[in-house]
From TrEMBL:
InterPro entries: BlaI_family, WH-like_DNA-bd_sf, WH_DNA-bd_sf. It comes from Brevundimonas bullata. GO terms for molecular function: DNA binding. This is Putative transcriptional regulator. Coiled coil: none annotated. Keywords: DNA-binding, Transcription, Transcription regulation.
Length: 124
């Protein structure tokens, strides 16, 4: 369902997923381009009506949080990116990510090695 959201709704939803929780002002401040509080409230209300966001009263107004598990949303977004830009190849996407020049910690390198070993073992 997330991929079918209009661009602005998807942007607000993804921002809220990144924040995990946020007020209207918090979401607005985290966006890359400026929207009014009114526009953010409208977009959050639309997302709430679609069952993607829930809200509760907080000391600074309503606090919003995404309803689906962030990991599920991230997996879907990553799969769309792999399909779109890497012809469905997770290995090509991983190679591109590793080629971006960020240094891996020993723990990250070990986790990647385990994930590769597990992926190879799953092959028929």
């Amino acid at each position: 369902m997330i991929e079918s959201l209009p661009r602005r709704e998807r942007e607000v939803f993804e921002t809220l997923c990144r924040l995990e929780t946020g007020t209207t002002a918090g979401v607005r401040n985290a966006l890359t381009d400026t929207l009014s509080d009114s526009a953010i409230r409208t977009l959050l209300a639309r997302l709430e009506s679609k069952g993607l966001v829930e809200r509760e009263a907080g000391t600074d107004g309503f606090v919003y949080r995404p309803v689906p598990r962030t990991e599920t949303v991230a997996a879907g977004a990553l799969q769309r990116m792999i399909d779109t830009f890497f012809a469905g190849s997770a290995a090509s996407a991983a190679t591109a990510l590793l080629g971006m020049g960020q240094r891996l910690t020993p723990d990250e390198a070990a986790a990647l090695e385990r994930a590769i070993d597990e992926a190879v073992e799953r092959q028929p």
